[in-house]
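Q: Can someone sanity-check these two? First one:
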Amino acid sequence: MVHFVGAGPGAPDLITLRGAQLLKNADVVIYAGSLVNPELLELCPPQVKIHNSAAMDLEAVLAVMEQAETAGLTTVRLHTGDASLYGAIREQMDALSAKGIDFDVTPGVSSFCAAAAALGAEFTLPGVSQSLIVSRMAGRTPVPEREQLAALAEHGTSMVLFLSAGLLPQLQEELLRGAYTPDTPAALVYKASWPDEKLVRCTVGTLAQAGRENQITKTALVLVGDFLGKEYERSKLYDPAFSTGFRQGADTNSRGD
């Protein structure tokens, strides 16, 4: 059996209880060494066989999985954050299915959640934004034409960008082609939840400068939008005038969440 496990954003205690238990019972672990905190490997039993996928291609990863399955061993494929975001797990799962190897997926805490927590931010503020766009700049890995960043930026909503810290000048230019202005709040979050985490608040117009001055070129998220500002409306759910299925408010005609 192969277990795909989201390791969380970095801090060892942010892996899920299920993920930690799977590591404790693993015979073989294949982990994304360039991104996963190696402290998590301390959860593994002494006899575990560990492979760092940073130096492996897909075929090498699959070969280890297949060998472990043939030997009746349990494999944990440890991905950073949540594996459903930029984890390249679909191709692994399809290959395992073709080989008749069983697998399951344990979700993890994504780094974009840890980044918001570090900033004390809420992506979906009433009266500001009720949507979040998760995307990336086109680089060595392209993005579909309809998902070009300038087009997504037209929405002007909350946005978090992965895998883009090394392209901040181009990123800034693309964002400004949309609905964001040079004064729109932004932030760089380097290694969210790690001991060397760094938070840099800036604006869309100063993103490239902020990255340059703080020497941030990788392992960082870019957060953009007015949710990082000071203005927002009070939530309806906890408004004393708002009725719900659990509480009667002053406004007897209002129901919902």
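And here is the second, same format, sequence then tokens:
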Amino acid sequence: MSAMIHTGMKSRTFPPACKGLSTIVLALMFAILLPVIGGRSQAAEESGKKRVVFVAGRPSHGYGQHEHNAGCLLLAKYLQAAHPDFVIDVFQNGWPKDPAMAFAGADTVVMYCDGGGGHMVNPHLTEFDEVMKKGVGLVCLHYAVEIPPGDGGQRFLDWLGGYFEINWSVNPHWKAEFQTLPEHPITRGVAPFSINDEWYFHMRFRDDMQGVTPILSSIPPESTMNRRDGTHSGNPAVRLAVAQKVPQHVAWATEREDGGRGFGFTGAHFHNNWADDNFRKIVLNAILWTAHAEVPADGVSSTTPSETELEANQDEPKSR
């Protein structure tokens, strides 16, 4: 069986004949990385390079939906093109096997995965809290914003400023209209837009929105309340909010007391939505902002992905 070493966005494979050599290489790498486990590396500090870590969840829905691996790889590709000096790693198909090494020197972590009781961070809340306490940023996309209430919910309020709470938040599909945008580094270069997605809303935020800045807000149509009450579909509080036409925040930024920054984004159910330039830019901007990197005046530049680029790395084949 081959030994594998994760080197950025690729894995380097050594044939069986090189097992002895690969063991030595692994030992040397560990010796180099040991002083920086859980914090910024000396080399990163001296070079000023930013390190972005993507953690993509396992395959989930059918074709074109919840494409965690393909979505992370696509975003990483654009981010690397715009910032070739960044160190960018993508860990696919669930929690990294060696989280200490995976998060060493990270400036921000992007999680795109299934959530709720199956959220990949659930068994690792305590250890990941140590990463967050170092001021590392956090971006959670779509289902990754849902965590069970209790310990997980309290952690997300701290790390992210808000989260999807069952029996309070809802997950309908609807076309959100973002007619106005706040002045914030994350919205640089982003124009008003509208797009259909599974936009979760009525999120559970910190009391009085302390340290939380709404980034994308819209008034959901009454059709979002067509389903019966349920853990994810409806409840008296959200029905009242929709009836009163209260704007709902579906993307938000937060700043923590430890200096860390968080960004929650409830869209990205549909993989093809990454082809929307404003949709994509707001997430790329947020990754920079949470990493404490300067967001350009016109936002992160990226070309609209082609159909071939969108098809790449998807978990499920396209039905014919």
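A (reply): Looked at the second one. Residues 1-36 form one domain. The first helix runs from residue 19 to 33.
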